[in-house]
């Protein structure tokens, strides 16, 4: 079993981006973060993204809005950033308060600044295998992990657990595209799937993004499977100072002995998401400069 070190792979991408940004003469790329409310996980994620941007040489600007912000006020903020030629990428930190529709909000961001890859136009471009759009950062990170870990996808059976707009669907589209990594046979499973273990045991590559702690057990995978665990779940642990620990959607200790390669949680897909956000921001900057 080989552990896929997401921290190390993300670090190499960050170093590549730092080199590219350092060679830019004059104005550097700028990414804007909009955070609504003070959800502790959102605060932590945005801080991590700001720190990574700073390391690379990408300028970040943070816009904080109250939890009870109106849709009109949020959209006015997005419109202002859309119109600002200095801003290359716009990221709206999810989750948003219940009174604001996330899809409508993501679609308010100009597709050319949608570095999160959530705008309907960018998702449509992914369906059409049009490389000019932005791919959502977590699925893009999964593809990079697979490619840089030399996991073969052509002709393989990829099983995706989960059908979210943010991970499951785009990951499935990337794996079935006529390119590498891709050219795979893809099965998408979810909470209504019958005989789920029977399907997951067929997987040459299993992408688990179902959002349930330790959901995939040892008897659900075959020998030699490559496992990409996207889940980040908090489970109570009184031995930890903070009272919990992070686990994935895969029961690591049971699945790892059967896997040829596997991502840990934390330290697997997570760091890749931030690295790919920065990759998308640099792409948006270059497209704006060329445009």
Automatic annotation (TrEMBL):
Could you list this entry's UniProt keywords, alphabetically sorted.
Amino-acid biosynthesis, Histidine biosynthesis, Hydrolase, Methionine biosynthesis, Multifunctional enzyme, NADP, One-carbon metabolism, Oxidoreductase, Purine biosynthesis
NCBIfam families referenced in this protein's UniProt entry, alphabetically: PRK14186.1
- What EC identifiers does the entry list? 1.5.1.5, 3.5.4.9
Q: Does the keyword Zinc apply?
A: no
Species of origin = Coraliomargarita algicola
Which family does the entry's similarity section mention? Belongs to the tetrahydrofolate dehydrogenase/cyclohydrolase family.
Q: What is this protein called?
A: Bifunctional protein FolD
Taxonomically, the superkingdom here is Bacteria
Report the HAMAP family cross-referenced here: THF_DHG_CYH
Annotated ranges, domain Tetrahydrofolate dehydrogenase/cyclohydrolase catalytic: 4-116
Query: Record-annotated residues binding NADP(+)?
Result: 162-164, 232
Q: Which reaction does it catalyse?
A: (6R)-5,10-methenyltetrahydrofolate + H2O = (6R)-10-formyltetrahydrofolate + H(+); (6R)-5,10-methylene-5,6,7,8-tetrahydrofolate + NADP(+) = (6R)-5,10-methenyltetrahydrofolate + NADPH
The residues covered by the Tetrahydrofolate dehydrogenase/cyclohydrolase NAD(P)-binding domain are 136-287
The pathway is: One-carbon metabolism; tetrahydrofolate interconversion
What function does this protein fulfil?
Answer: Catalyzes the oxidation of 5,10-methylenetetrahydrofolate to 5,10-methenyltetrahydrofolate and then the hydrolysis of 5,10-methenyltetrahydrofolate to 10-formyltetrahydrofolate.
Pfam families per record = THF_DHG_CYH, THF_DHG_CYH_C
PANTHER family hit by this protein = C-1-TETRAHYDROFOLATE SYNTHASE, CYTOPLASMIC (PTHR48099:SF5), C-1-TETRAHYDROFOLATE SYNTHASE, CYTOPLASMIC-RELATED (PTHR48099)
Quote the subunit structure annotation. Homodimer.
Q: Which region is the signal sequence?
A: none
Query: Gene3D superfamilies under this entry?
Result: Leucine Dehydrogenase, chain A, domain 1, NAD(P)-binding Rossmann-like Domain
